[in-house]
Structures are given as structure tokens and as C-alpha cells.
Design a protein that fits this description.
The termini are far apart. By secondary structure, this protein is mostly beta strands. It is globular and about 45 Å long. Strand 5 and strand 6 form a beta hairpin. It has no helices and 11 strands.
């Protein structure tokens, strides 16, 4: 059974930084694309960033230039470095991994105060 576990969320002041991590366990199969999503109450879940197994990345316009996605294939882990955080970035952050199908983590709360 594949499990994704996120960590690194928490409270932060506007202008600050956080680094989220997400580790996949329970799979000996190579992981495909990994992504980070954000859920803000009352809004649709938003795809923020994706990274292929080869390291190609894509970003939503809302986070381009502030967030950086990376991954360590040996550790089955993806990271989301978030800089210059804004109150509008507050929400629950989820990672996903494609291993035959998409798996989701449980989410980690990020709260940015002004």
C-alpha cells in the first residue's frame, strides 16, 4: 500500500519561507510525476507545481518565481520551497505521486499571517 506523508507546514509571517516535504513509502516501483496542490476554503483545489521523474518542472502563475519544487528520487521525496509567502497562500497543501495511479497525501496546513 502506497502512502504519502507531508511535513513542514505551520504558521509563518508574511514574507517568510517554509519548506514542505512529501515522502512516498510502500512502493518499490519508480514514481512518476509528483505534484503539489493547495486547497483554500471555498475555492477549488489548485495545482501549484509539478515535477517529472526526470526533473522537468511546471508552476502555476500564482506561485511562479516564489515557489520551487524539487525531488530526490533515491528518497522518494518531493519538496516545495515556498518563499515570500503571502496571506493568500494560506491553505492546506497536498502532494501527489503517480505510481500507476495518483496517490494523495493527507495534507499539511500552512497559515500565513500579515
Amino acid at each position: 500500500q502506497v502512502q504519502l506523508v507531508e511535513s513542514g507546514g505551520g504558521p509563518v509571517q508574511a514574507g517568510g519561507s517554509l519548506r514542505l516535504s512529501c515522502t512516498a513509502s510502500g512502493s518499490a516501483v519508480r514514481i512518476g510525476v509528483m505534484c503539489w496542490y493547495r486547497q483554500i476554503p471555498g475555492k477549488q483545489r489548485e495545482l501549484l507545481a509539478s515535477i517529472s521523474s526526470g526533473g522537468s518542472t511546471n508552476y502555476a502563475d500564482s506561485v511562479k518565481g516564489r515557489f520551487t519544487i524539487s525531488r530526490d528520487n533515491d528518497k522518494n521525496t518531493t519538496y516545495l520551497q515556498m518563499n515570500r509567502l503571502e496571506p493568500e497562500d494560506t491553505g492546506v497543501y497536498y502532494c501527489t505521486a503517480f505510481i500507476g495511479r495518483h496517490y494523495w497525501g493527507q495534507g499539511t496546513q500552512v497559515t500565513v499571517s500579515s
